[in-house]
Write a structure and sequence with these properties.
mainly alpha, 0% strand, 2 domains
């Protein structure tokens, strides 16, 4: 064997090792990203469930059960501080507070805190539409962070499993008249 052959074999070995490391690194990045995604989705689901329960209890005037649900919402807001730490705008705002509370509250948590304070009001039942809007803003904020369309596209790219057929209700109903009759019967 010539010296050039050893160099070629060495270069090939380095290339193979680099390729293996890139696969391992990409896999690890995906796992970490997916773990974070699942944690955030789980927290979002628990939070939205409590928001819905509180909205229904507010409509019904059920204040006894409402206290327990308010405690859960408060705990979820506290958990949310780990996903959405306060924003430091460099103006020293809140610097006298403990570290988790220094700065400006992230908008995701603002939606929840405003919901909490709205539900505490004596006349909270008059603000059901506001609560619904705050919940929608909260979900939209999490939606924008998690980018489900991009995620579904990546799933499709790597697994050939389509997560979205791009069909709305109008498209579904236009394909089969029996479907339209079925949906109309739901409202009769």
């Amino acid at each position: 064997m010539y010296f050039r052959d050893y160099i070629s074999l060495g270069a090939l070995a380095v290339s193979i090792i680099a390729f293996i490391i890139s696969i391992i690194t990409s896999t690890k990045k995906y796992e970490l990203s997916n773990d974070y995604r699942q944690e955030l989705l789980s927290w979002h689901n628990k939070t939205v469930e409590i928001l819905i329960v509180l909205k229904l209890q507010t409509q019904d005037g059920n204040n006894h059960d409402k206290i327990a649900a308010m405690a859960k919402l408060s705990a979820l807001i506290e958990q949310g501080r780990f996903y959405f730490p306060n924003v430091d705008k460099g103006d020293g705002f809140g610097s006298d507070k403990p570290s988790a509370y220094a700065g400006y509250r992230d908008i995701a948590l603002e939606f929840l805190v405003y919901s909490y304070y709205t539900i505490q009001r004596e006349n909270a039942h008059k603000y059901i539409r506001h609560l619904e809007q705050l919940q929608r803003l909260f979900t939209s904020h999490i939606f924008n962070i998690l980018e489900p369309r991009k995620h579904n596209s990546q799933i499709n790219k790597h697994t050939r499993v389509s997560m979205d057929d791009g069909m709305g209700l109008e498209d579904f109903l236009s394909k089969d008249v029996d479907n339209l009759d079925y949906f109309i019967s739901l409202y009769d």
